[in-house]
Design a protein that fits this description.
The chain is mainly α and 192 residues long. It is built from six helices and two strands. A two-stranded parallel ribbon has the order 1-2. Helix 5 packs antiparallel against helix 6. It comes from Anaerocolumna chitinilytica. Keywords: Membrane, Transmembrane, Transmembrane helix.
Length: 192
């Protein structure tokens, strides 16, 4: 158990600690700007067509802000944290980066952890479809977008494994969000 902790959990904790200290504050303003842009665009383009104002409820606005905050943080972490041209390798072989040793799977675990918040927040937003498939596709699209930006800028390796593991993390986050909703609903039914 100590070996797994030293080889897998400690490096992940260290990486997350450094990322949080470095990029959390930097993500606040871009997330706020994204929320204002989203709200303005929604008002200008869609409000007349749809009578729904669900997107402007306080809970929806808070979840949208968290989603935009997460997206800004993920972009800082996966793209802006690296110098341009520092990583240019392409690896399209699925599971090529996986290892039998715990230490070799630190990046795999981090790729899964990176997308759990996306799936979680996607499921909690009241105006997104209650469909795992749509969340999965959205997670893949986001992951492919990040991989392409990394490839074009030379700020990250283009790897199939990243997309697969990010999609898996997205599914885990969605399931956690779904279970939270079920738990909340059952607690509300018991108390009401």
């Amino acid at each position: 158990m100590t070996n797994i902790f030293n080889e897998l959990f400690y490096p992940i904790f260290t990486d997350l600690h450094v990322a949080a200290a470095t990029y959390l504050i930097s993500s606040i303003l871009p997330a706020l700007l994204a929320l204002v842009t989203f709200d303005t665009t929604y008002l200008l383009l869609y409000r007349k067509k749809r009578k729904s104002t669900e997107v402007f409820r306080k809970s929806s606005q808070f979840l949208l802000y968290l989603l935009f905050f997460y997206l800004a943080f993920a972009f800082y972490l996966t793209v802006l944290s690296r110098p341009t041209g520092s990583r240019t390798r392409v690896d399209l072989m699925p599971f090529a980066t996986m290892s039998v040793r715990a230490a070799g799977n630190v990046y795999a675990a981090e790729n899964i952890l990176l997308f759990i918040p996306f799936g979680f927040l996607y499921r909690l937003l009241p105006f997104t479809a209650n469909k795992l498939g749509k969340c999965f596709r959205s997670g893949i699209i986001l992951s492919v977008f990040i991989e392409m930006v990394q490839f074009i800028t030379g700020r990250g390796y283009l790897q199939t494994d990243d997309v697969i593991l990010n999609a898996f993390g997205c599914i885990i986050g969605y399931i956690i969000g779904n279970q939270l909703i079920k738990l909340t609903d059952s607690l509300l039914l018991r108390s009401g």
